[in-house]
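Hello again,

I reread your note about wanting to compare the complex against the isolated chains. To keep things tidy I'm splitting this into two emails, and this first one only covers the full assembly. Below are the input lines as submitted, including protein chains and any nucleic acid or small-molecule components. They are followed by the predicted structure of everything together. The single-chain runs will come separately.
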Amino acid sequence: MNHSRQRDLIMDYLSGTKSHPTAEEVYENVSRVEPNISLGTVYRNLKLLSDNKMIIRIHTQDGVDHFDADTRDHYHFYCTKCGRVYDLEMDMSATVRKLVREASEVTDCRVEGCMIYFHGICNNCEPTRG
Amino acid sequence: MNHSRQRDLIMDYLSGTKSHPTAEEVYENVSRVEPNISLGTVYRNLKLLSDNKMIIRIHTQDGVDHFDADTRDHYHFYCTKCGRVYDLEMDMSATVRKLVREASEVTDCRVEGCMIYFHGICNNCEPTRG
DNA sequence: TTAAAATCAGTAACCATTACTGATTTTAAG
DNA sequence: CTTAAAATCAGTAATGGTTACTGATTTTAA
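Full-complex prediction:
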């Protein structure tokens, strides 16, 4: 993977936000810096970067993928109302290990891991606390 | 929701299999009994049935949805090689409640639940046990 | 400096799914 | 049983996120 101005800009934008943008949102924002960039380039580089484990691709219920430059072990909350994705700063590594172990016991398949997606209504859509 | 021969056939087929078929697979199988059924009808009824909680829609990593007539609380294993979906007969209700409680503590969002998807290589693709 | 490899912008194609059409079937009241 | 409104159908076009293709441009490394 060579360097390219476009890919660097995409990576820079993703690294500087915690909003877990979609490909379309990445395109809109990078376009402000590099107006000639094309949507195809954004998709291709998001695919390249996620295939190379430099960013995380987050599948959501509405079928639109979101992206995250934070590759540390952490979890996500998906708002079923607005579709936004939020970080959850909690350590679940022990729980995940336990789940994988338990799952391995009830199947002949080789369980390599599990994805955990939290969902509900975000504080922005329906504020509940001051 | 009235009755219709087509919807009953789709429901019957789903109830009689544990293979978690895709819309295309449902279409292929129901077509053997009702050759005139159209793919659009299958999609429309799968949507109707899942919207009415009579079946479960399972999102998978490859972007193709799978369906399950078993609406009991249970979990799924997705094979990253062949794309098949398997049931996991394990009781995780206590773990899920704990996770939701923990997640609620680290966010202002209203956490309503979480989806847990296991993945790996199935015994059909790479046999490991007799 | 230069040529091969990688990447680009632009756009067409892909594919799962949904929406639209006029015809047919189902339901429920008379 | 009729019969008319509502639901559903088959067939097909449209949608929308994503990927693939093109010839031109940029990057890399010798």
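For quick reference: Chain A has four helices and five strands.

B.
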